[in-house]
Amino acid sequence: MTAFAASSASLDGPAQLLETPDGRRLAYSEGQKNGRLIADPKEVAVLLRRYATLRSQTLSPKDSRGLLERMRGAL
């Protein structure tokens, strides 16, 4: 994610994305008092797109290190 981004694709909470040996895609979404297995392909597709967006927002390891070093130097 770029430094100080206003929003993130993952703000709705954690989700596990799964693929079975036969290629079926599932998701598991968990909250504080509940969890839900998601098997509907349309709902799983939404979560897969969010994951792709999150990956596109993520800094590379080199850029992450540079950001942390700059933040440490600013303290």
TrEMBL record:
<dbReference type="InterPro" id="IPR043917">
    <property type="entry name" value="DUF5753"/>
</dbReference>
<protein>
    <recommendedName>
        <fullName>DUF5753 domain-containing protein</fullName>
    </recommendedName>
</protein>
<dbReference type="Pfam" id="PF19054">
    <property type="entry name" value="DUF5753"/>
</dbReference>
<feature type="domain" description="DUF5753">
    <location>
        <begin position="7"/>
        <end position="70"/>
    </location>
</feature>
